[in-house]
Specification:
four-stranded antiparallel sheet; 16 strands; Ethylene_sulfur-biosynth (chains A, B); disordered C terminus; globular; carbon-sulfur lyase activity (chains A, B); Aspartate Aminotransferase, domain 1; homodimer; Alliinase_N_sf (chains A, B); pyridoxal phosphate (chains A, B); aminotransferase (chains A, B); 14 helices
Chain lengths: 457, 457
């Protein structure tokens, strides 16, 4: 007991008690949503306050019961923040809950003798595109109204990552004297420079921030809208001729941003990972105006992987069918977009409350816009939080890591390490542990400082 | 009638009748196998001799009933060879028959909420490898005895094509002064040079035939065994130090070649396309000894496609399970390997008979070897026929194309256009039309020459 009082002074206990209060206030805010989750999480949380071991075994049991591993995230907390919460990737596991309630409707059955050939539609331009999937892509865009599909070729890819490379290959002449410059306005998607330069291609080369690009000659400008990492709606920023625009519209869906109008660009990239949440499928698609560009993209996918998994395309077709049906005949959770938009709205409210509470960070502010699909006006609620640490903290990623929250540093996005990107798409329990921990970081830090002052090893 | 006699002289008719006889002899040879197919093909063939239109509509009906389009091949013939038979690709559709008889045992069911995360096994070196699939890979190699799996890392890829690029990336230092040379003994797989050089990488560069390679410095030698296109068992041919060997063992399965012993190389590539016939899955795997090489390969797949379709991996696991079970408890068709080995043996007999009949071509000859898996001795019966046109024909691909048989010219494999590569893995009906047509080409050519002589336009 003497030891106890030695470590925890009354002042320390007061700070700890304050932290608990903040946590309880936050809990009241999201209790309703938490209960909806799986009818078990609230109990888990309560247990977590009393004993760590039981929660650990509960979490392990949950892992076993789950169809997929809980990715790189952890589901355990309430032990004073010892457990690592990994929000580095945009792993869209928050969508599992929607798909669970669709039941058999979204189940795919593939007999052993089906889809054995390399070819899906031998006579068509994209010979490895499953016609059924192509049909659902068009129906989905028509339903949501987020992209023009008329007079476009569809090219399917092993995720939009492969299509990004297919686009670079298609837009860079084989006989050019020097590699074509590839630019995007900072903060840009951290994978763009890595993918572009990983093979030291003689066809194309990463040339950094589009805003400071001033090299002569042709170039490729990537316009990611809404932007990864910061969520803002974007347009081309390079103010000179000779550029070809590539629009990465992975996040142009009504759960993340108001759908202002149907995008009508020459090259548009989409992915199921961020629209339906099926990242494990590795399926993306491009809508391409120019037939020669589309042909070269097909050629790239042929050289790179001889087409795209038919199984995943068939599953994607089924999943899009269910999404479209959910828009026409919404269930108790609403359409997929209602479900996800509602969840994103709640999560952003919680995140902003936690950030206010902590006082150590800032978040982007967005203006509301009218959404033609959801028939209401709302502010963007992006798939990533682009968090900035307040001065004097320089290394936001390192600071959060010391609090067992794994994020991606701004330096990978071409900007200052004061920023970090945080996934907003993880499972409910992880997200809630994250906001809870974030809200108390200031207090925790104080406790830690006090503890250190108190001479604890 | 005057017109009829004008076109067809008695001599012409004699030649035509001879051609029909050869065709009927061949039919007797494969009638049994043909009947097994689906109990309908023989009738199709008979119809084909009387009316083209009915066969065309039959073929279209077959297409509709089929799970997948009949790839780039056609199923119609008996109309004098007007229909195009495409054997350019190694599309392994001959395996459909095996998988049809496995029924529900090989069916995969994936609910909508399953496998949504990017991650399959977050903690493991290859974080996107489904553990269930990894387990079946090891069991399969142990069952067949064709590769050592102990002390190896498994890296999964979107087909072995992606793994080939992953290997090049892994073996080429990022800071090298010049690109690493990549060689393979001609005739080499036609895609190697195209894939290696398509992005003009600064890391590696195609350097052609390994036999004539004499550049100083480190290099990568691809050893494809049995070889694509010619089917011979191979070993390294470059006789100097500084080389790293990559073994492409896509065809090292008992249906193609006797399994002499378990391959025990540093880097070995495999694919389901040529082992089970599931090309549409786009799934390959590498067995890699060195942890650093394995790590870099994983990095490449991460950059290239952020992992590999989980759906296809789960389906591949199921399919391998059924293959292993078929070895332990063979059905009426035997194990998958019995089925395919039997089919390849029959096909090679038919092909050799047709080649003898035509007198225009030659084929590789193979010595028999003892197979530890099938417990008998047999000569290789490769997945491709490496056909050589006799003098004075220079352009074998062009010659066969003029007979509506699409093959791949030897020039793409680094050798003379007197050679062509022909897939032996197409569906039964296409293969039989092909050998029938090949056997009568000499006669057809004579007819054509006669006809031309007779003044037909």
């Amino acid at each position: 007991m003497a030891m106890f009082f030695n470590i925890f002074s009354l002042k320390n206990l007061l700070v700890l008690s304050l932290a608990l209060n903040v946590s309880l206030v936050l809990r009241v805010l999201y209790e309703k949503d938490f209960e909806v989750n799986n009818g078990r999480s609230v109990d888990n949380q309560k247990d977590a306050l009393t004993t760590t071991d039981s929660v650990l075994s509960e979490a392990r049991a949950t892992q076993r019961a789950r169809p997929s591993m809980p990715s790189s995230s952890s589901t355990v907390d309430g032990d004073g923040g010892d457990t690592i919460i990994n929000l580095d990737h945009g792993d869209p596991t928050m969508y599992e809950r929607f798909w669970q309630q669709t039941g058999d409707k979204s189940t795919i059955v593939i007999p052993g003798w089906q889809s054995m050939s390399y070819f899906s539609d031998a006579g068509s331009l994209c010979w490895f595109l499953e016609p059924e999937f192509a049909k659902e892509i068009i129906r989905l865009h028509k339903t949501v109204g987020n992209a023009v599909t008329e007079d476009r070729y569809i090219v399917v890819g092993t995720g939009s990552t492969q299509l990004y490379q297919a686009v670079l290959y298609a837009l860079s002449p084989q006989d050019a004297v020097e590699p074509r410059s590839v630019v995007s306005a900072a903060p840009y998607y951290s994978s763009y420079p890595l993918i572009t330069d990983c093979l030291k291609s003689g066809l194309y080369k990463w040339a950094g921030d589009a805003r400071s690009f001033n090299k002569e000659g042709p170039f490729i400008e990537l316009v990611t809208s809404p932007n990864n990492p910061d969520g803002y709606v974007r347009q081309s920023v390079v103010n000179k001729s000779g550029g070809i625009l590539v629009h990465d519209l992975a996040y142009y869906w009504p759960q993340y941003t108001p759908i202002a109008s149907a995008a009508n660009h020459d090259i548009m990239l989409f992915t199921v990972s961020k629209s339906t949440g099926h990242a494990g499928m590795r399926i993306g698609w491009a809508l391409v105006k120019d037939v020669e560009v589309a042909k070269k993209m097909v050629k790239f996918v042929e050289l790179n992987t001889i087409g795209v998994s038919k199984d995943s395309q068939l599953r994607a077709a089924k999943v899009l069918q269910v999404v479209i049906h959910s828009c026409q005949y919404p269930t108790s959770l609403g359409s997929l977009f209602d479900f996800a938009a509602h969840l994103m709205e709640e999560r952003w409210k919680l995140l902003r409350a936690a950030v206010r509470q902590s006082g150590l960070f800032t978040l982007p502010e967005f203006s509301p816009g009218s959404c033609s699909f959801l028939n209401r006006s709302f502010a963007p609620q992006p798939a990533f939080a682009w968090l900035k640490c307040q001065e004097p903290m320089e290394d936001c990623e390192g600071f959060l890591r010391s609090n067992n929250i794994i994020t991606r540093s701004g330096k990978h996005f071409g900007v200052s390490p004061q920023f970090v990107r945080i996934s907003m798409l993880d499972r409910d329990e992880n997200f809630h542990i994250f906001v809870e921990r974030l809200s108390t970081i200031h207090l925790r830090q104080s406790v830690q400082v006090e503890e250190t002052d108190g001479g604890v090893e």
